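Hi,

I'm pasting everything inline rather than attaching a file, because the server keeps stripping attachments. The sequence lines come first, and each chain or strand is labelled.
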Amino acid sequence: MSDLSTEVKQLIIETLDLEDIEATDINDEEALFVDGLGLDSIDALELGVAIKKAYDVKIDGNTDDSKKHFYSVKTLCDFIASTRA
Amino acid sequence: MKFAIKKCIAWGDGKTCLEDWQAFANNVSIQAQTLTLPELKQIPAMQRRRLSAFAKLTLHCALTASDTYQHEIPSVFSSRHGDLHKTSKLIADVASKEALSPTHFGLSVHNAVGGLFSIYTGNKAPLSAVSAGEDSFFMGLVDAVAKLHTRKYKRILYVYSDQAVPEHYQNYVQQHADNIAVGLLIEASDSVDNYSIECVGHDNVQSAENLQLQALDFLKFYFSQQQQLSTCSKRYKWQLTRS
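And the predicted assembly:
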């Protein structure tokens, strides 16, 4: 799980060009969008594509479910793990 | 068509400040001609991270030239190739059937940098994006001056930028591989800083493209004491006069 979390954080940093941020700076439970890390809607699209590419998961557009999955690194990891089960 | 240039900001390979451009105009430039990028510290880091080299060069000149007018000035952005580095990477992704990056897609369209300028400054004035082959610099200038006159604007911002094309396109472009961005603050002609632009001929003017970019022809003229710039392209004969 923690390996996946580091991997996802690294993916977020590289995909979104977060130059001054390191994986250890991102809190697992903190919000990725608006508050917390401060990502925006363009980042959401970009991250969706990257997650889809890296983990071959299906993400349904702008649904409440996908909003929950993309809330934090932890929810994202849980989502990826659940698709593998 | 007459107009006044109130400010000229340019950024190119090894040439970033007034002294560099004056040296270039007087043919005494000796420093390394490599491209450094403007820092654009005024743009918040979370917005700045998405800016390509092309966007940085262009925005630097647009913001510095428009300065205190940046929130309401109308503008024309011109470029022959646009952000071709971004576009060609997208095309490569299409060819290899990769999923396309939404950000890169959105920022590769021809008016993307103009859009970034208007979002960052909150500017809602009319903005257009021009591309006209090797005549992109002068055609964009004509568009800006024509808008200034017909719309009776007090002033208009003109920005031209181009980068050396990606390697696999280099065989198709005769012009020297220069990186250049120019921002001009243009106003209706007054008693000083006056220029007039004329297109004095067209159709089959010469058979090959000029090796030097028109923007560099212009900057050499602007920062020197010459009274007139005459230059030809394949299709047009341009004349810019200082008065």
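Chain A has one domain: 2-84.

If the labels don't parse on your end, tell me and I'll reformat.
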